[in-house]
Specification:
0% strand; globular
Length: 144
Amino acid sequence: MSCRTPRLEGWISTYAFVRLPNWFKEGLAVMASGGGGAEFVGVAEARAAVQRHEHIAIDDTGSLWNLSEIRFERAPSGATWSHATVMACRQAGMFVSYLHDADGPGFARMMNAILDGRPFAEAVNAGYHQDVHSLWQKFAQNSN
């Protein structure tokens, strides 16, 4: 199951698209669609899971061996595969929305770097002058 739409793929090369982390591609799709693909997990439920440290893994690159699944750092306990998938989409969407809302110009710089074909880690640094793991920590702290 994927919450992604193929829109970004039309703007960058296939190689550049594959190199983007899945959580980012899926989260961008959820944000752009106003929550599409994550309808069955609410923000409060996803935020509570982040507080319990049951959250997605924040990779800074994609993988040829995993083209669509969002990995978990620690999966929600007792969740079915489909519920975990939707939870991952919701958390990814919340994080991408946080990146957008916390610093709109930084998000624009990051997206421009992505559209220029720069590696994701480099694009994040160009946008925010810090790495994505530091940004996730700020997001997670704001989820409390």
